[in-house]
Structures
1.
Amino acid sequence: MSRTSYPRHKIRITLLENIHPAAREALTAAGYTVDVIPKALEGDELAAVLKDAHVVGLRSRTKLREAQLALAPRLMAIGCFSVGTDQVEIDAAARCGIPVFNAPYASTRSVAELTLGCVIALARRLGDKSGKLHQGQWDKSLSGAHEIRGRTIGLIGYGHIGQQVGLLAEACGMRVLFFDIQRKLPLGLAKPVPTVEQLFDEADFVSLHVPETAQTRGMVGAPQLARMKPGSYLLNLSRGSVVALDALRNALADGRLGGAALDVFPQEPTPVQAEWRSELAGLPNVILTPHVGGNTEEAQRNIGIEVATALIAFIDRGVTEGAVNFPQIHLPPRDGTHRLLDIHKNVPGVLASVTAIVSELGANIEAQQLGTTKDVGYLVMDIDRQLSDAVRDRIAALPSSIKTRLLY
Ligand code: NAI
């Protein structure tokens, strides 16, 4: 049976900010002691948690900067139960020997479903119809209402979300075109187009699924909107900076576009900000949602399970696959050995020093894997059991070592 060097129940994991209960269940079932604090923490309250925790799980509101990491002597991993990791200074965490895990794709399906919902809602002008009826107006006009069957959706960005949108759209009878800067295998009957311009020319619905990069910032502005077919629709459920909103506003106000759906905005309000108004508010057939593409119970549960699973794999087996700031190591477990983890400064000569220690002590290395990033090296080594404690002590004493751990 595999055991961590430390009894599992002595490993303290603190989950902040209402992380989905599935995470607590998985971590408790793995044998760790899990504390749950429903709110975000800062200042002294956060310092008190960091003093003892071996692992901290957070969502987006608790910030872990270098100053906070310095208060966490035992911290061995951070779980960001979110798509991004902006809330943590990940390079500083790496220098402290702490891998950071997140769940970049757990909300893929939720975003794809909302996108398809918006495609239908735009085609039927649902936002306007519902708004009017809320005001007591019974507007049954069919003007501007269409089926989506047989129409063309153009996906810019054919990654995790783009591909799912393509599959859902095709199931509804749509023709799917996509443009991506990487070569992507088309799913179903989707067709790549050689230039993004062709996609703007041909699509009835243009849907954006790109990350925020120097290249995508402002990639949809007046020239691109001018290419779009009269009466066509734009959807952005990716990142707010991708679309120039003033140009979109003009295209919608002129009636050149048939409508738009936006879930993300260049400047989004903080959770406590009471009121926020978009410059597109009040325009016809414009669906505005407050960055909720990935906000479903299912996505939160997926995030909880995905990050908890990654944390367990790291604590129990030293696996760092999926960590955003660490060398990616996944050494299959090997019976009859002890596993030594050495997180060290990425300076020349570490492997030579480790090898010298192992041979001096007469230990046998059954398997090993080393990975490095800019600042950090991570060595996982399976060695024979008799000598593992001595090897650990000598390696931990090397000046290059940041954190050294033995898994029995
Ligand atoms: P992904 O990384 O799987 O796919 C992005 C794709 O865009 C990649 O295939 C990439 O090659 C392509 N790409 C990058 N630059 C491009 C360019 N200049 N032109 C064309 N293609 C380009 O990412 P994923 O998971 O599909 O996410 C897509 C977007 O959705 C991201 O911006 C993400 O932040 C956003 N998102 C929004 C959510 C919401 O709540 N509305 C929730 C989750 C993600």
2.
Amino acid sequence: MKFFIDTANLEEIREAQALGVLDGVTTNPSLMAKEGISGDENVIQHYIDICEIVDGDVSAEVIATDFDGMVEEGTKLASLHKQIVVKIPMIQEGIKALKYFSDKEIKTNCTLIFSPGQALIAAKAGANYVSPFIGRLDDATTDGPELIAQIRLIYDNYGYETEILAASIRHSMHIIKCAEYGADVATCPLSAILGLLKHPLTDIGLAKFLADHKKASSVTV
Ligand code: G3P
């Protein structure tokens, strides 16, 4: 499974990259706003900065919601760097834009996926990634990770190569569930990735190993 980080914070991206397990980055307008990034030039520079930190795909979302606007904006974004993937919302005009970019061999990520039908039509339109928002489904008392399993089944039935990019991940257990259900990618906050490392028995075991080593080293023969 690929690990992406879901942030526009350059420090967090650097920290995740330094771990050596990072495969890409996803951003969205809310995450960009959280970092105070606004204005065309700043937005463009920020995407370029992100691409220079990581080796993999970097999703950059269009703001336009009409076909012509999405094509214009997405084309501009894609021209910034070879790692940019154009993020397109799951709306009727977005489907047309996905098909347009697919025909031009520009990579896309269809975002705001909340149902298997939406994932099916995005794959049919040629999206490279679909982003099911599992945390927001959980918030709405619907089983978010279950959607990953449904999409996996549908894509495998027909051999769609669209990658399932599980998004809106809130904690480490979401990552485990996504891995069990066959997501291709999990885009996560850094805290959820770091949470995978932790187990109290590891800490207790390590403390004992070190204490035993110290005891043995202090014994003089
Ligand atoms: O990638 C989409 C993701 O950022 C949404 O996450 O936590 O706002 O539901 P959240």
